[in-house]
């Protein structure tokens, strides 16, 4: 049986920037690509950090490859990235946007990282709930990326397979009941207005976490905050938190 290999969409590939001994894995969200976190990566690189943004399996190529991918594939991509950073860095922190935040929580629960930052973490996606019980895979039209700023282009698929949606919902069901057991420093960042994931989910997450934690709200961004008006502030918040984690870890 021949398996088709799809090329990566130009601009959607993984990237790595060498820096200091604090490694930051930037994880994009469902149907996104590393392109959505690239500007934040450049900001963090400018602060001296080592930054790696993997491309989750099935993303940034073809919807058919997305259809074949699973939540285990996505998580394996993240853990492979953590291992890469562990070889080079003393501290490893995952910064995850949307589903990337869900994957960050899963990695933290498994003890793979020193700290995490969640940005509009996907702990429910009301717009996808109606597809949870789909018996077959269908390709549905995807809405425009939820970004307040005008003229911003995010690389995403125009059509999304319902099988991938079910994998996302299963990942949420797997992670959400256990978030109170996260034991590493956690920074919960969310937008005041988010048309994809309810901001209340991040508030709930912050309340559930028993480890050292903090929370901030982005007033001028929607769901894809790494590409929105608050991006520079977001980068500063992440950099400050990561510097604090590295300092405490050295003590």
UniProtKB/TrEMBL annotation:
Keywords: Hydrolase. Residues 24-234 form the AB hydrolase-1 domain. It comes from the Bacteria. The keyword Hydrolase applies. Substrate binds at residues 30, 99. SUPFAM superfamilies: alpha/beta-Hydrolases. The keyword Hydrolase applies. GO terms for molecular function: monoacylglycerol lipase activity. The active site is at 98 (nucleophile), 194 (charge relay system), 223 (charge relay system). Its EC number is 3.1.1.23. It is an enzyme of class 3 (hydrolase). PANTHER family: PHOSPHOLIPASE-RELATED (PTHR11614). This is Thermostable monoacylglycerol lipase. It comes from Exiguobacterium aurantiacum.
């Amino acid at each position: 049986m021949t398996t088709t290999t799809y090329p990566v969409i130009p601009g959607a590939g993984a990237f790595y920037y060498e820096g200091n001994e604090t490694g930051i894995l930037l994880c994009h969200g469902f149907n996104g690509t590393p392109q959505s976190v690239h500007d934040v990566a450049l900001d963090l690189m400018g602060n001296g950090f080592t930054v790696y943004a993997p491309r989750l399996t099935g993303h940034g190529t073809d919807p058919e490859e997305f259809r074949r991918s699973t939540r285990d594939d996505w998580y394996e991509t993240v853990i492979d990235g953590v291992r890469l950073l562990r070889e080079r860095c003393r501290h490893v922190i995952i910064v995850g946007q949307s589903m990337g935040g869900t994957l960050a929580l899963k990695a933290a629960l498994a003890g793979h990282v020193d700290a995490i930052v969640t940005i509009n973490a996907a702990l429910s996606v009301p717009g996808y709930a109606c597809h949870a019980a789909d018996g077959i895979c269908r390709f549905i039209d995807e809405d425009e990326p939820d970004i307040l700023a005008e003229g911003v282009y995010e690389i995403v698929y125009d059509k999304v397979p319902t099988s991938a949606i079910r994998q996302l919902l299963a990942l949420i069901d797997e992670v959400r009941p256990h978030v109170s057991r996260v034991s590493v420093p956690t920074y919960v960042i969310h937008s005041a207005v988010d048309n994809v994931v309810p901001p209340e989910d991040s508030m709930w997450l912050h309340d559930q976490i028993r480890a050292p934690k903090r929370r901030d709200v982005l007033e001028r961004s929607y769901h894809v905050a790494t590409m929105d008006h608050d991006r520079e502030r977001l980068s500063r918040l992440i950099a400050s938190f990561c510097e604090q984690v590295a300092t405490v870890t050295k003590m």
